[in-house]
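Task: sequence in, structure out. Protein: Olfactory receptor.
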Amino acid sequence: MGWENLTSISEFFLLGLSEQPEQQEVLFGLFLSMYLITVAGNLLIILAIVTDAQLHTPMYFFLANLSLADACFVSTTVPKMLANIWIQNQAISYAGCLSQLYFFMLFVMLEAFVLAVMAYDRYVAICHPLHYIMVMSPGLCGLLVSASWTVNALHSLLHTLLMNRLSFCADHEIPHFFCDINPLLSLSCTDPFINELVIFTIGGLAGLVCVLCLIISYAYIFSTILKIPSAQGKRKAFSTCSSHLSVVSLFFGTSFCVYFSPPSTRSAQKGTVASVMYTVVTPMLNPFIYSLRNKDIKSSLRKLIWVRKIHSAQ
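Result:
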């Protein structure tokens, strides 16, 4: 398709989670509460890690980046949905839709990469504890995080530029609460073969690298844990990665349901429900999972709250 045939539409309409007027106030209150809890929880995790010198280790450096990705991730989609409900206007500009798509894909893939890096970190800590400090040096940790940001920024830009080359039909209604790639492709009047090819090759390759890193790391971790003679030693070793496993299962399970399910079984309603799970629920639960199951984070958060109480009392 030539450049002269690019779409000239000015806006899309996000249909949201429900078109029933009586449900809008409930949805607004529910998602506003979830959004505030998510942002506050993840920022508290970051603040606890930054202010506590005992948490200045590779594992918590990656956790801080995961919390930052979660806070940005949920801020890409939920505020626009809340604004649309509040002003009772479902419109989103064409440029705004592509911008939302870019940042959404950036942060969703960044989260996948950070989770994979955290699995490698746990592998080194459990399987090679004597070499942990030498292997997970500050330089390597910074390189892994910087590479994750750079690769995913370019990956998201590729998908956004490919979306921009498509033309769209008269129906500009997106059966979703944000501009996701699959609903947008379904509205295209031009053949989205290249877009779909890139999704299942480059996007699939990126996802496969993350999944393989997770599987291989945990295969070695479980193998090492099973060799520990005492039951207490096994529980202690497993406790260091149980929170990470919970987050990985929730995030990858729901995201694969959305992007890698067969077209014959895919529906707008199922896709929207699964999207809510990994775009809103997962980022909200991550701080609770790590704070409730991690003694260091719980201790740091208690000290942080205690210091704030002392300062307010003075």
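The first helix runs from residue 21 to 51.
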